[in-house]
């Protein structure tokens, strides 16, 4: 068996799972990982949080095809993924704004592994398989769970990360808009116990940054995009061998502005359905919005969590 499944027995989780909507959560650990080119000595992957749906799709995950002309965007959830996807798709498609506005990002950039956490009418792996090439693929998978073919093919990939406090706040509102029924405080305490989808968070980020001989991956951060978008766009253009004029790039910056993204129904998925309650998919887009959302006690909780999980000072810079 390629994966090991364990029930979550943490008392806080058990106490709240019926009220929060997390009854079917499970921890999954990859047992076959020697093919992952990672520099961490004696590395063993940790278990990650999914739903029991994972068992149904594990073979499709293992056997997922990967092509040399694929473009992948990888992240832990709520790290600036949608923003990055839209930027990457446009840069790789000659800044075709008309085509971008005509088709949902979900279609242009399928979410490979969503079937592992949410019921879907069609397998997300099947959808990705049937997407016309060149494909654009989104995933939140950790390094230990990427399809084996990924490491053989090494498609062009962007990895995006974000400050953990910003991730925590954004993840709470996102989850609340879909299924979560608990308070922010309960969510945060579950989050630091690694009991939210795709957790553990720090391990995800560190492991991607500790890969070796992976020049197919360009690393970005949400904060860098927020404060230095033109610089990030230049790096991404160079990575994909693209060049655009200054007026063309100004149109791209305008398209990628928070207001434009928030008001764009092809990327801000939930805004397309006025009858659906909850927060918009793209909510505030702030680099340090957590300062307005979290109490001093919650900030301390998250900061102490990062200190505990990331004792290496160099690695801790990834979470600033």
Q: Care to describe what's here?
A:
The protein is α/β, with parallel strands linked by helices and 320 residues long. Helix content is 44%, strand content 11%. The protein contains 17 helices and seven strands. It has helices spanning 11-20, 53-62, 81-92, 97-102, 105-108, 124-129, 148-153, 164-178, 184-191, 201-209, 222-227, 229-240, 246-255, 258-262, 290-293, 296-309, 313-316; strands spanning 3-6, 25-30, 48-51, 71-75, 136-139, 156-161, 217-221. The strands form two sheets. A four-stranded parallel sheet has the order 5-4-6-7, sandwiched between helices. Strands 1-2-3 form a three-stranded antiparallel sheet, with helices on one face. Helix 3 crosses helix 12 (229-240) and helix 8 (164-178) packs across helix 9. The longest helix has 15 residues, at 164-178. Mean pLDDT is 93; it is low at 271-281.
As a percent range, the share of helical residues equals 40-55%
Beta-strand percent range? 5-15%
What is the overall shape? Answer: globular
- Counting helices, strands and paired strands, the structural category is alpha/beta
User: What is the makeup of the main sheet?
Assistant: 4 strands, parallel
Average pLDDT metric: 93
Write a brief structural summary:
The protein is an alpha/beta fold and 320 residues long. It is built from 17 helices and seven strands.
List the helices and strands and how they pair.
Blueprint: E1 3-6, H1 11-20, E2 25-30, E3 48-51, H2 53-62, E4 71-75, H3 81-92, H4 97-102, H5 105-108, H6 124-129, E5 136-139, H7 148-153, E6 156-161, H8 164-178, H9 184-191, H10 201-209, E7 217-221, H11 222-227, H12 229-240, H13 246-255, H14 258-262, H15 290-293, H16 296-309, H17 313-316
Parallel strand pairs: 4-5, 4-6, 6-7
Antiparallel strand pairs: 1-2, 2-3
């Amino acid at each position: 068996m390629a994966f090991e499944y364990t029930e979550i027995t943490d008392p806080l989780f058990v106490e709240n799972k019926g009220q929060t909507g997390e009854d079917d959560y499970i921890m999954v650990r990859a047992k076959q990982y020697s093919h992952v080119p990672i520099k961490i000595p004696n590395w063993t992957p940790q278990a990650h949080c999914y739903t029991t749906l994972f068992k149904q799709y594990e073979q499709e995950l293992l056997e997922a095809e990967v092509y040399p002309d694929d473009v992948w965007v990888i992240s832990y959830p709520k790290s600036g993924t949608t923003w990055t996807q839209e930027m990457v798709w446009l840069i790789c498609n000659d800044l075709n704004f008309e085509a971008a506005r005509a088709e949902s990002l979900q279609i242009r950039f399928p979410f490979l592994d969503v079937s592992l956490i949410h019921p879907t009418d069609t397998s997300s792996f099947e959808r990705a398989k049937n997407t016309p090439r060149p494909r654009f693929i989104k995933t939140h998978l950790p390094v230990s769970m990427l399809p084996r073919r990924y490491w053989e093919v090494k498609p062009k990939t962007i990895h995006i990360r974000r400050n953990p406090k910003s991730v925590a706040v954004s993840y709470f509102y996102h989850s609340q808009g879909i299924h979560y029924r608990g308070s922010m405080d309960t969510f945060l305490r579950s989050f630091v116990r690694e009991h939210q989808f795709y957790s553990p968070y720090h391990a995800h980020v560190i492991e991607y940054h500790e890969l070796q001989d992976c020049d197919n991956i360009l690393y970005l951060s949400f904060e860098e995009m927020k404060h230095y978008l033109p610089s990030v766009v230049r790096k991404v253009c160079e990575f994909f061998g693209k060049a655009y004029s200054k007026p063309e790039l100004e149109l791209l910056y305008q398209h990628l502005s928070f207001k434009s993204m928030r008001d764009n129904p092809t990327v801000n998925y939930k805004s397309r359905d006025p009858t659906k309650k909850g927060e918009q998919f793209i909510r505030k887009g702030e680099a340090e919005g957590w300062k307005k959302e979290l109490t001093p006690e919650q900030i301390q909780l998250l900061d102490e969590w990062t200190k505990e999980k990331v004792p290496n000072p160099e690695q801790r810079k990834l979470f600033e």
